[in-house]
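pls read this protein.

:::
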Amino acid sequence: MTDRRSHRHRPGVLLLGMLLTALTSIPARAADHPDLTSLNLEELLNVEVTSAARRPQGIYDTAAAIYVISQEDIRRSGATSLPEILRMVPGIQVARINSSVWAVSARGLNDRFANKLLVMQDGRTLYNRIFSGVYWDAQDTVLEDIERIEVIRGPGAAIWGANAVNGVINIITKSAAATRGNLLSLTLGNENRVIVEARQGVALNENADLRVYAKGFERDSGSDARGNDNSDDWRALRGGFRFDREQAGRNHLTLQGDIYRGSVGETFTLATLSPPFSTTLTDDTDIFGGNLLGRWKEIFSATSDLSLQVFYDRAHNWDIASGQDQQTFDIDFQHRFAPTERQLVGWGLGYRHIWDHTKQGPVISFTPQDEKNDLFTAFINDQIELVPDHLRLIAGTQIEHSDYSGFEIQPTLRLLWTPRPFYTIWGAISRSVRTPSRAETGIDLRQNVVPVALLPPPLNGLPAPSLGQFSLIGNDNFDSTTAWTYELGLRCQPAAATYLELVLFHTSYEGLASVDLGTPVNEGANWLLPMVGNNRLDADSYGIELAADWMPRRWWKLQSAYTYLNVTQSLKAGAVFTGFKQRADNSPHHQLSLRSSIDFARNWEWDAGLRLVDNLPGSNVSGYLGIDTRLAWKPRPGWQLELVGQNLNDPHHPEFVSEVLNSTAIEVDRSLFLRGTWTF
């Protein structure tokens, strides 16, 4: 097995190596990374965000729980994947299921397909409608090319639409003009076996720039509870481009695209009708896809602009359990203007068409096998300055219509009070919805086989045949989940070297996924015991999110985040199966992270971090402490060498066990790697 995994895709790695060699012959210029000593905390926080209102605004002008991960944060985190970067954000639970599969969510109810978190990259949604969630094994880029990641905890549905219930993650990459020059990077390690990255940015003329990149990697498999190597290794090749043209600072045009192909290992336990009624199969899932996006923006003034964005995306995931091929076409228009001196209005229209093709596997099938879906959206957001520079009222709503759920209205009302500079108090009331997935309306997921005699009454009285097999069955009448969220937040800078943020929240969910036991069906060799999906589960979540940054010296930065979360759920009358209630107990009550970044001199950096995650009783996962560190040396301008250690305090530990698919539980191993980066 080891030989098979290590030799696959070697031609692709060699091809990528040839590309790296070719790029080294192209002369160009690149700027060095900034260091901590060049910025104070006030300047570090003086960034504009766009995800909260679909327009640029300062952190202190935002009436939402927003956290910004800068490029410097990404670079110094030592992360090698997008989910790893998100670990530093308060209110976000990031748990690794195996080498390539993650459970990522905000404010609870996490799972392999976390269906209440909207993730985007440069305005393109990464949310997959088939299972409602993000396939993180298909999401990647050159991390150096990310400008920032904006994370909203709490609803963003009034701006971004359905499924932005518990949060929005917006990954924003740099413009092509900001990446002129060349970049070569090589990573070697025990878990990150090899990561090779190459990027070139060129100025085509005084108004236009182009960036191209290629990336390939191979990651080792994780371990089981005994420390034995598993089969969840992960490898992929990816390439892409971005073209930007800007004229007179008013007219902006962006064209960008990516293609990728990879192989993801995973071990599944499949049910059988003969003793011991299950078998274990190892599979390498083929993944491939690509996307193409175009965006045009015309700026008329500081308070008026309009934009049009169009993208096409294809995602192919073909494993032993089933197969899905999804294509998405999306068009989005928005306009911003100021009808009065104290008012700023944004509105927009959108259309999305999704068509998918599925294959019938030994475990999963869909009815119908192929399906198309149309989504129409409209939003409006109105900001009114009640007291100039001190008090603002923000009201807005998203109205949308989909083939699954019909019309949905998702309003929000927010108030922002700024009594003095760098001091903001805000509050919000919002309604959001999570629309049904393809699986919830049409899946047939075959699960465990049990002798009829061992079933609870009255099922144990069924006549021959003597075996029963449970199956999760979709429901055409499955409805949307609705949520009302109440938030109160404070952010302030009590001193030039200190930043504090506090958020209190409560969310009331109605119509979460649950199942009822349907009428048994005699299939000849066994009884089919259908568990039919419905919306008989309600929940309430309460929590506190704290973040604090402190720079005791210009060369030393400390960052901390703490989250308390409590989720309670209740089944409505008539529901007989409580399996989905496990998700409440898959949310840790406490999460704490601490990070330290030190510049020893102009050419040495040391970063260290720890994260403490509470127990997950729902999946019998114990709490754990993770310790990471990074030592970087810049021997000369443009060169950087890094030694990174992750999960140093124990050889391996589990972080999450998913209830969605019966795959083997994998533990996260200690990781050490060396990375060299050359920009020129």
